[in-house]
Amino acid sequence: MINPRPHKKLTLWQRAIDLVTDIYKMTESFPAKGGFGLIAQWAFPKP
Fold first, then answer.
1. Cβ proximity of 32 and 40 under 8 Å
2. What is the pLDDT of residue 33?
3. What is the pLDDT, as a whole number, of residue 18?
4. How many CA atoms lie within 13 A of 13 on its CB side?
5. CA separation (Å) from 14 to 8, 33, 35, 38?
6. Of 8, 2, 1, 42, residue with least CA distance to 25
7. DSSP string spanning the chain?
8. Gap between the Cα atoms of 23 and 44, Å rounded
9. Spatial distance between the Cα atoms of 27 and 8, rounded to a whole number of angstroms
């Protein structure tokens, strides 16, 4: 059977997901008051 998500084996993909996850964790502690400030620019949906 062919792997439906071969990109997930790529080192680049794994490192990118790690980076996004780290950014998300860092921005969780930011105050919500900013609204569409840095949080909106930095926070990504959880992978």
1. no
2. 65
3. 95
4. 7
5. 7, 32, 30, 25
6. 42
7. ---S-GGGGSHHHHHHHHHHHHHHHHHHTS-GGGTTSHHHHH-----
8. 8
9. 25
> CA–CA separation, 34 vs 16, rounded Å?
26
Q: In the structure encoding, which two tokens stand for residue 16, read together?
A: 């990118």
Residue range 1-47, pLDDT digits in tens: 788 888 888 999 999 999 989 988 887 877 766 555 655 565 555 55
Cβ-proximal residues to 2 (8 Å cutoff; 6+ apart), any chain: none
Q: Which long-range contacts (CB under 8 A, 24 or more apart) does 24-28 make?
A: none
Residue 20: Cβ-neighbour burial (10 angstroms; 0-12, 13-18, 19+): middle
